[in-house]
């Protein structure tokens, strides 16, 4: 007689094994992408020109990954310019070699060469993006990066019916690199862009729009997730959809406490995820993006539009325009940013540093330095603590890792050389800045508080600052001069927004905190490309920790040579 007891116990064991396998989290995958940097003729506003692209696409391809994945992107450069790609917002733990900013973490990929960006996506999920990080090439070399949560992990908000990427950008009639060089040679701001774009398209308020309008079809009663990215070079942008509210649920790939708004503000480098419910009378509604302008320099103030189109509505119906905040509405900008709060749930806590080991105070300013060949004999500059950063000839991370002397100094001052009324009457004399490749050295695992203070050197202005290699908590912000005796008492240390790019308000200050647990050389710079070129940047050298998993990884064999 067969031993049925043994048979059934064997089947039960097999079933338990199968159930155990299905209950395990999916193994991390390796995602591979090929980026061919190539020049292609693209037409906008009745005008064609050659532009640098990835795979001939403008904007470039979207990278889709899951939290925990390994990503390999082989970048082959077939264009006439040197190239590097930055994965904006990815922390790149111990792996600055894959971060991308030219002459900071790598030398650029030269024409005819390739480099594989090899990195892990650890502890992050949401909307980020990638872009060229050399010269002004990110004007056309950029795209979205979507990190889905781990398999089986839901969003902490209602599951949308569908999602859409909204990439905001700028378009120039002329060659962007030529325009940048002309500005440098003149010592003045270069020509502003000729249009703003939504997914590379200016929309119906511009000529020759028929093929160049982004449209998104929706169904009545359904909810959609928009992944909005500001890829513009020099403009903070307001964004709205006519007659439709938006619920903000994520910023810079960090979940937020949801709040509803009719318009949002997004700085270059930032991302914002919103839920939009198609709950209006079926029709066609404009989505629109227009700059927030609070400076005396000329800016492209034109409005880019796309269309939210209900299913079944003919294209002959003219869309309704949204009401956007006035271009100089600083009050809206300040109030909107005050609404941003980290979700701070049990699953997604806000681990805000309470104790500060290192206090930094960086004054942000414009200036003028002598330039005999420039208009008026001066060149506009920008500085942190009166230092205009000079780019090195080799990668700073390489110099740090290999202990190459003479490339940079680590004596960047913790505070300005002179204390003054930072946001008082405009200062138009003694506007010279010192120049140098000076970095700030940070002890491993120390907690850092950095106050970024706008100044009225030439003019007050808002500045979106991006820190590579880290997220940080925006613990405080205010108008006027930061008061170290009074303002820290007003900090939000419970659920402040966690970001990788933050706006310093016009004539005001922003305080951020982070834990320096990622060794390497990490770029800190204004994400207005204009200001970065003028020297508004520096870098942190975060020292290695004592553990074997707390040191910079060795450089890859195919790291581009200088």
UniProtKB/TrEMBL annotation:
Name the record gives this protein: Laccase
Segment forming the signal sequence: 1-28
Family stated for the protein in its record: Belongs to the multicopper oxidase family.
Biological process, per Gene Ontology: lignin catabolic process
Keywords assigned: Apoplast, Copper, Glycoprotein, Lignin degradation, Metal-binding, Oxidoreductase, Repeat, Secreted, Signal
First-level EC class: oxidoreductase
Function: Lignin degradation and detoxification of lignin-derived products.
Gene Ontology cellular-component terms listed: apoplast
Catalysed reactions, semicolon-separated: 4 hydroquinone + O2 = 4 benzosemiquinone + 2 H2O
Co-factor remark: Binds 4 Cu cations per monomer.
Plastocyanin-like domain ranges (all copies): 37-151, 165-312, 411-544
């Amino acid at each position: 007689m067969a031993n049925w007891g043994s048979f059934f116990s064997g089947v039960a064991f097999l079933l338990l094994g199968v159930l155990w396998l299905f209950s395990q989290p999916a193994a991390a995958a390796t995602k591979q992408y090929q980026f061919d940097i190539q020049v292609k003729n693209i037409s906008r506003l009745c005008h064609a020109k050659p532009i640098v692209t990835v795979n001939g696409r403008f904007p470039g391809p979207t990278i889709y990954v899951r939290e925990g994945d390994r990503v390999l992107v082989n970048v082959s450069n077939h264009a006439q310019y040197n190239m590097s790609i930055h994965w904006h917002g990815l922390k790149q733990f111990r792996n600055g070699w894959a971060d991308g900013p030219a002459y900071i973490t790598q030398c650029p990929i030269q024409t005819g060469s390739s480099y594989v960006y090899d990195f892990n996506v650890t502890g992050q999920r949401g909307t980020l993006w990638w872009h060229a990080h050399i010269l002004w090439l990110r004007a056309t070399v950029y795209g979205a990066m979507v990190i889905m949560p781990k398999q089986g992990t839901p969003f902490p908000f209602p599951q949308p019916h569908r999602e859409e990427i909204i990439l905001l950008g700028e378009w120039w009639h002329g060659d962007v690199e030529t325009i940048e060089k002309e500005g440098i040679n003149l010592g003045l701001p270069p020509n502003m862009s000729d249009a703003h774009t939504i997914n590379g398209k200016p929309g119906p308020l511009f000529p020759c729009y028929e093929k160049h309008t982004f449209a998104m079809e929706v169904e009545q009663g359904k909810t959609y997730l928009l992944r909005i990215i500001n890829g513009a070079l020099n403009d903070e942008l307001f964004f709205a959809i006519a007659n439709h509210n938006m619920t903000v649920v994520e910023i810079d790939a960090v979940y937020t406490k949801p709040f509803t708004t009719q318009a949002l503000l997004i700085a270059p480098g930032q991302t914002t995820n919103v839920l939009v419910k198609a709950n209006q009378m079926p029709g066609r509604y404009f989505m629109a993006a227009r700059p927030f302008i609070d400076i005396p320099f000329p800016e492209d103030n034109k409005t880019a539009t796309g269309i939210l189109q209900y299913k079944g509505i003919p294209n002959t119906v003219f869309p309704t325009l949204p009401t956007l905040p006035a271009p100089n509405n600083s009050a809206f900008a300040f109030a909107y940013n005050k609404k941003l709060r980290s979700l701070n749930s049990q699953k997604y806590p806000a681990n805000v540093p309470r104790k500060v080991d290192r206090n930094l105070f960086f004054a942000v300013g414009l200036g003028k330095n002598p330039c005999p060949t420039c208009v008026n004999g001066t060149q506009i500059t920008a500085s942190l603590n009166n230092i205009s950063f000079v780019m090195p000839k080799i990668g700073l991370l390489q110099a740090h890792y290999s202990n190459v002397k003479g490339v940079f100094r680590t004596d960047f001052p913790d505070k300005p050389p002179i204390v003054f009324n930072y946001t008082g009457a405009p200062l138009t004399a003694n506007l010279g800045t010192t120049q140098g490749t000076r970095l700030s050295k940070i002890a491993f695992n120390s907690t850092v508080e950095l106050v970024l203070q706008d100044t009225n050197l030439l003019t007050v202005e808002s500045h979106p600052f991006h820190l590579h290699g880290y997220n940080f908590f925006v613990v405080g912000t205010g108008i006027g001069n930061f008061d170290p005796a009074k303002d820290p008492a007003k900090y939000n240390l419970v659920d402040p927004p966690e970001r990788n790019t933050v706006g310093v308000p016009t004539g005001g200050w922003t305080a951020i905190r982070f834990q320096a647990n990622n060794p390497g050389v990490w770029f800190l710079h204004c994400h207005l490309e204009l200001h970065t070129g003028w020297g508004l940047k520096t870098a942190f050298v975060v020292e290695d920790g004592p553990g074997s998993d707390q040191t910079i990884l060795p450089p890859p064999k195919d790291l581009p040579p200088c």
